[in-house]
C-alpha cells in the first residue's frame, strides 16, 4: 500500500510522530529513554527549514531500496514522551544517498542527542526490506517496551508462536481484526546486535508486530506512525487481560473459537488462526 497525493508535509509527520510517542509513553511502554521511532518517506519534502544542519552519515548497512528517500528518526537517549513538545530537538532526518550506501544527517542547532537511536540498524533493515518487497512510498516503525507483553515473554510458554497469539487474541473482538496474523515472537537477542536486526527483519515480514523476548516489541505500518502505535496498544491491552487472568487463577473464559470465527467471518478478517 502506498500513500497518494496530496502527500503530508514535514510538520504533519512531526506532529504524528509526537502523538505516537506520547501514546506509547501513556502505555508505560517507554520508561526513561527506552523506545525509538522512525518513518521512511519516499517523496521530496522541505527538510532544512526545521533541520538546517547537515553532516555526512555512515549507514549501518547498505539500503539500496531506500536510495533517494529520507528517514526521520529519534535521537539516542531521547524520551518518546518529549517528542511532541519539541520535535526538532529530539529527531533527525537521514537522507539516503543515490547509491543506497551513504547518507547525510539533518538536525536542528538545538538538538539534544549526539547520535540517532542505537537500534537504527534494525529500523533501516526493516524499512529497506519492506519497501523492496512492497514498493510502498511510506513506512513507519516503533520499538517500545510494553510491560505486560514483555513480562509474558519471560514465561517460556509465551515464547511459543501459536500459543501466545491464541492466548492474546481471545480477549477482545477488535484484537484479531487489527492483528490478523497474531503476534510474532523472536528469541532473546542482544539489543542493537546484528542477530537482533536479522531476527527482527525476518519476523516483520510475516507480522505487523513482533515481540522481542525479554526486551519489548516492534510494530510497523505502511499507513501511518500512529497506526503502528495502535498495534502496540492492541497487543499490550490483550497482554494486560492475559496477565490479569493469570493473577486471578485463570478463571476467565475469553472469546471461544466459535465466537472468534464469527468475528472473522463478519469482518472478513484475513487470518488462519481460527
TrEMBL record:
Q: Does the keyword Metal-binding apply?
A: yes
Q: Which UniProt keywords apply?
A: Lyase, Metal-binding
One BP annotation, GO: pentose catabolic process
Give the Class II aldolase/adducin N-terminal domain ranges: 15-243
What Gene3D superfamilies would the database entry show?
Class II aldolase/adducin N-terminal domain (3.40.225.10)
Q: Which organism is it from?
A: Kouleothrix aurantiaca
Single GO cellular component term:
cytosol
Is Lyase among this UniProt entry's keywords?
yes
Name of the molecule in the record = Rhamnulose-1-phosphate aldolase
Amino acid at each position: 500500500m502506498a500513500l497518494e497525493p496530496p502527500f503530508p508535509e514535514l510538520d504533519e509527520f512531526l506532529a504524528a510522530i509526537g502523538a505516537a510517542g506520547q501514546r506509547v509513553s501513556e502505555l508505560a511502554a517507554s520508561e526513561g529513554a527506552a523506545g525509538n521511532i522512525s518513518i521512511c518517506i519516499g517523496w521530496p519534502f522541505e527538510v532544512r527549514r526545521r533541520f538546517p544542519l547537515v553532516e555526512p552519515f555512515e549507514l549501518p548497512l547498505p539500503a539500496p531500496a531506500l536510495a533517494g528517500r529520507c528517514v526521520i528518526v529519534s535521537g539516542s537517549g531521547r524520551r518518546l514522551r518529549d517528542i511532541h513538545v519539541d520535535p526538532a530537538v529530539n529527531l533527525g532526518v537521514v537522507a539516503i544517498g543515490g547509491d543506497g550506501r551513504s547518507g547525510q544527517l539533518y538536525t536542528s542547532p538545538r538538538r539534544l542527542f549526539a547520535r540517532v537511536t542505537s537500534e537504527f540498524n534494525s529500523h533501516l533493515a526493516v524499512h529497506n526490506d519492506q519497501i523492496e518487497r512492497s514498493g510502498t512510498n511510506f513506512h513507519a516503525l516503533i520499538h517500545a517496551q510494553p510491560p505486560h507483553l514483555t513480562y509474558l515473554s519471560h514465561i517460556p510458554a509465551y515464547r511459543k508462536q501459536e500459543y501466545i497469539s491464541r492466548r492474546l487474541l481471545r480477549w477482545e473482538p477488535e484484537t484479531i481484526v487489527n492483528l490478523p496474523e497474531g503476534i510474532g515472537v523472536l528469541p532473546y537477542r542482544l539489543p542493537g546486535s546484528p542477530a537482533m536486526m536479522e531476527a527482527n527483519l525476518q519476523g516483520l515480514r510475516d507480522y505487523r508486530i513482533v515481540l522481542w523476548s525479554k526486551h519489548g516489541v516492534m510494530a510497523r505500518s505502511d499507513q501511518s506512525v500512529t497506526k503502528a502505535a495502535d498495534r502496540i496498544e492492541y497487543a499490550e491491552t490483550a497482554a494486560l487481560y492475559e496477565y490479569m487472568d493469570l493473577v486471578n487463577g485463570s478463571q476467565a473464559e475469553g472469546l471461544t473459537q466459535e465466537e472468534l470465527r464469527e468475528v472473522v467471518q463478519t469482518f472478513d478478517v484475513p487470518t488462519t488462526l481460527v
